[in-house]
Amino acid sequence: MRNIIFAAAAVAAFATPAYANEARVEARGGVIWADGDSEAFGGLAAGYDFDLGTSTFVGVEVSGDKVFTDNTKVAWGFTGRAGAKVGAGKLYAAGGYTTEFCDVCDGNWHIGAGYQHSLGTNLFGKLEYRRYLVDNFSDTNAVAVGVGMTF
User: Fold this and answer.
1) CATH code (residue 45)
2) What's the whole-model pTM score?
3) 7-27 pLDDT, tens per residue?
4) How far is the C-alpha of 46 from the C-alpha of 44, rounded, in Å?
5) Buried b (16+ CB within 10 A) or exposed e, 104-128
6) Taking the CB of residue 1, how many other CB atoms lie within 10 A of it?
7) Which of 91, 105, 138, 151 has its CA 20 to 30 A from that of 9?
8) In what helix (H) or strand (E) does residue 96 lie, and over which residues does it extend?
9) Number of domains the chain is built from
10) Which parts of the chain sit beneath pLDDT 70?
11) Alpha-helix runs per DSSP H in 1-151
């Protein structure tokens, strides 16, 4: 019954309030930089958010991102996130592990924060910052913009 009420409310409003207990997929792109160099990247992600009450949630995500330059490969990310449901969006902190971006690179831990905003019944936009904590090199930063669907 609760799911029917939530579904009816979502159809009734264009900017649906953010709800957890939902699966999501997204396409994203952005810029990654370190030591004065920057490159574009793109990727895909899928995740699931678990409701912790009326105003908080936790979630998990797996992603694949590719830096658009020579000698790089898809880096796989495994991320947890926790945050607050704010109006029609979700404000969150994130952290996890990303595999290497190139054959001579190492995998690294990442931390960050983001905001995901509902754009309708099942559509959302997202802005996220990540800092990659790289051993033996300068830390790397990334900002991504994404668009996705919830289920």
Assistant:
1) 2.40.160.20
2) 0.84
3) 444 433 334 455 558 999 999
4) 7
5) ebebbebebbbebbbbeeeebebeb
6) 5
7) 91
8) strand 89-98
9) 1
10) 1-20
11) 2-12
